[in-house]
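tmp note - CBM1 domain-containing protein
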Amino acid sequence: MHHTALATAVVGLLAGLASATNGDWQQCGGINWTGDTTCGSGAGCVKINPNPSPIDYSQCQPGAAPAPAPTPTTLKTSAVPAPTSTSTPSTPGSPAGTGPGTELQSGYYWIRAVEAPNFHKYLQSNPLYGTGSAVLGDYTTAGQFQVVDGQLVQLVSAPGAAVKLLYGTVSQERSFNNQALLLSWSETKNTYGTFGWQGDGLTWSVAGITRPNSIAWYVCTGQQVYINLGNYMYQTPTGCVDETIHYYNDKHANN
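out:
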């Protein structure tokens, strides 16, 4: 009887250890981390990249659980003919969320430009918190973002509500001198290229395309944001300006 009770206790202890998980916003990895790396249901263990330190901390973030692998698609890496018009494409959108408010939520960043004429204009969606155009706008309507597993995500749910995200999606169709790719917001994940951070600068890369400046962007008519595949401040298309955009983690966005 003594041995049976002991065995039962050991089995119970091992079961408890096997099911241990970290709660939302708790540490789940990093340099010298020896604890559990598993997050609760619906959360994912996300590497945090504070500036200027290298990645050395991972945190359980709600809504960041890995999704099933998407069906493989053939990426277009060869140049396609530039459109005959350089006007801003139509990107109809629809409401997707109520928004996280004007106070920065834990685990997310503001993203803003730091050069004229868009100094301290903030990345957001048009319509606000909805699918459609990625634009730079006023600090009072700034979006909140993070890069998770190569995806640029925007938090569009209210604090305390179930986490809802939009994904930055990159068009494979080139425009503006054949050197620009349109960025927009979707409820489905991006399948073309990978987002990341270079210091505090937002980057994008894809196999088969070598970018001279990985943090180079265009802001064109209507404040629409494009990836600049060419050189920064060289042969800038009419109606566009060159920008780099960077994360900012103060409690509130400001101008």
